[in-house]
Amino acid sequence: xxxxxxxxxxxxxxxxxxxxxxxxxxxxxxxxxxxxxxxxxxxxxxxxxxx
Length: 51
Prior knowledge:
Layout: H1 3-42, H2 46-50
């Protein structure tokens, strides 16, 4: 393979790697948000504490 092919393969691999990393970060963020929402729902509300 010549230099340009190595460069193209490396660039493609980098783009795929960044895409996979971004996907995992988004999935983890969604899961964390869902967990926080469920924790907030389980806690008594501020209105209930006042009465």
